[in-house]
Design goal:
Elements: H1 6-18, E1 21-26, H2 32-39, E2 47-49, H3 53-58, H4 62-66, E3 71-76, H5 84-92, E4 99-106, H6 109-118, E5 123-127, H7 133-136, H8 141-147, H9 151-154, H10 159-180, H11 187-200, E6 203-204, H12 208-214, H13 218-230, E7 234-237, E8 253-256, H14 259-266, H15 271-276, H16 280-295, E9 300-305, E10 311-318, E11 321-327, H17 337-346, E12 350-355, E13 361-364, E14 367-371
Parallel strand pairs: 1-4, 1-5, 2-3, 3-4, 11-12, 12-14
Antiparallel strand pairs: 6-8, 7-8, 9-10, 10-11, 13-14
C-alpha cells in the first residue's frame, strides 16, 4: 500500500523556499527519511546520512565539505552531530544563500533547544507524526486507531507483525535512542513508568502516585515525563485558565500520542480486547485529539476543566477565535450541561462533538455533532 504524503511535502517545499534551514523532526520511524528522499536522491553528493560511516567521514571537516554545495542539502540523523549547528548558522548567513538545508532528526529536547538557539531567525521547524486520516481516508479509521499511525505498524502484513514491530519500537527507543541522546535512565524503570502513563491516558496528571509506585522523587517522575514528551511519545495537554469565578483544573492531562503504542503498553492485542478494555473511551479520546491537532488549523491548544465538573476535551485558538472539541464514542451525542457551560463560560465561536457515526447534525446554537470521518478533509471540522 502506498500512502500519499503530498500535503507534508508541500509544507516542506514551501519552508525550503523561504528559509535557509528547515528542521524536519518527529518520532523515530515516522517517515522523515522517506520524505527527504523524495526531495533528494540518497546517492546525491548533497545527501548526508549520519548513521552511515561514509557520510560521517565526509563531514570530518564540516564547513569545508558543506560550503561548496549548492541547492538542497539534506543532513539526516543530525542529533548525532550537534556540533554542526554553529557551522549551519555560518552557512545560512552567506550572501545569496547558494544552499538550503533540510536537517532531519528524531525528536529530542536537546536537538530542539540547540537548533532553536543556534539558528534563531534562520530556521523553520516542521513536526511530523504517523499517518493521519487525511492521508489514509476515512475508511482507514478503525485500523489506524487500533494499530496507530507509525508507518511500519500500520502497514504491517498481519496483526502479529504489527504487534511485534511496536514491541521492538518501544524497546529500541528505551535501550538505544535515549542513551544516544545522552539520557542515562534505566530502560526498565522508564518502561514501567511509560506503562503507568498509558494507564493515566486521558486523565489529569498527578506525579505523586507513579513516584510512590516507582520509589523515586516526584522530580524524577517529572523528568521521565518530559523525556517521553520530548521524544513525541507523550502529549502533556495543558489546561486553559479563563477569568472565571470557578476553581479550574491547573494540572495537565497526559496522552500516549500514538494509539498503537498505547494499546501495546496496555497489552491490547486484538480488536475485541480493545473494545472490552476499561480505557476504550480514553483511547478513543486520545485518538480523536491527535487526529484533530494534525488536520485542523490552529495556533494553540489546551483542555479545560473546573472542579465543579464542567470540562472540554480540546480547546483550540485560531486567531482571535476559540473553538471547542468534545470526543464522544456514542451513537448519537446530545447537548449536555457541560457543553452548555463551556459554550457560555469560554465564549466559544463553535463547538464540535466528534463521534463515530455518519451524520452531521446540530445540537444547539454553535454546537454540532460531527462524524470522525470529517477529519479526513482537513479544515472542515468547523465549516
Amino acid at each position: 500500500m502506498k500512502v500519499s504524503r503530498n500535503a507534508l511535502l508541500a509544507r516542506i517545499r514551501a519552508s525550503l523556499a523561504r528559509n535557509p534551514v528547515t528542521v524536519l523532526t518527529g518520532p523515530r520511524q515516522s517517515g522523515k527519511t522517506t520524505l527527504a528522499r523524495v526531495l533528494l536522491a540518497e546517492d546525491s553528493p548533497n545527501y548526508f546520512d549520519l548513521e552511515d560511516p561514509i557520510s560521517l567521514a565526509r563531514l570530518d571537516e564540516p564547513r569545508t565539505s558543506l560550503e561548496r554545495l549548492e541547492g538542497l542539502v539534506v543532513i539526516d540523523e543530525v542529533q548525532r552531530r550537534p556540533e554542526l549547528f554553529p557551522v549551519l548558522r555560518v552557512l545560512a548567513d552567506r550572501a545569496g544563500q547558494p544552499a538550503h538545508f533540510l536537517i532531519l532528526g528524531s525528536a529530542s529536547g536537546e536537538l530542539m533547544r540547540q537548533s532553536s538557539e543556534t539558528l534563531a531567525g534562520r530556521i523553520e521547524r516542521i513536526e511530523i507524526g504517523g499517518f493521519t486520516l487525511a492521508e489514509l481516508g476515512a475508511n482507514a479509521a478503525e485500523t489506524l486507531w487500533h494499530r496507530g499511525g507509525l508507518p511500519r505498524a500500520y502497514l504491517a502484513g498481519s496483526e502479529r507483525d504489527s504487534i511485534a514491530w511496536r514491541k521492538q519500537f518501544v524497546q529500541t527507543l528505551l535501550e538505544r535512542d535515549f542513551p544516544q541522546w545522552g539520557q542515562r535512565v534505566s530502560a526498565t524503570a522508564l518502561l514501567r513508568f511509560w506503562t503507568m502513563v498509558a494507564h493515566y491516558h486521558g486523565r489529569i496528571w498527578n506525579a505523586a502516585t507513579p513516584a510512590s509506585a516507582l520509589g523515586v522523587a516526584p522530580a524524577t517522575v517529572r523528568r521521565y515525563l518530559d523525556l517521553l514528551s520530548d521524544a513525541l511519545m507523550v502529549r502533556q495537554l495543558q489546561p486553559w485558565h479563563a477569568n472565571l469565578r470557578k476553581r479550574q483544573v491547573k494540572s495537565p492531562k497526559v496522552y500516549v500520542r500514538d494509539s498503537g503504542l498505547l494499546h501495546q503498553l496496555l497489552g491490547i492485542d486484538t480488536d475485541r480486547a480493545r473494545l472490552c478494555h476499561p480505557l476504550l473511551g480514553a483511547s478513543w479520546e486520545g485518538f480523536v485529539i491527535e487526529q484533530t491537532l494534525a488536520t485542523e488549523p490552529h495556533d494553540e491548544a489546551w483542555f479545560w476543566a473546573t472542579h465543579q465538573g464542567a470540562e472540554l476535551d480540546l480547546l483550540l485558538r485560531r486567531g482571535d477565535q476559540l473553538l471547542g472539541v468534545e470526543c464522544k464514542r456514542a451513537d448519537a451525542p446530545r447537548m449536555t450541561p457541560s457543553i452548555r457551560i463551556a459554550l457560555e463560560d469560554l465564549g466559544l465561536q463553535r463547538l464540535a462533538v466528534i463521534y463515530p457515526g455518519a451524520k452531521r447534525y446540530p445540537l444547539g446554537e454553535s454546537a454540532e455533532a460531527v462524524p470522525l470521518a470529517t477529519l479526513a478533509e482537513p479544515g472542515s471540522l468547523f465549516t
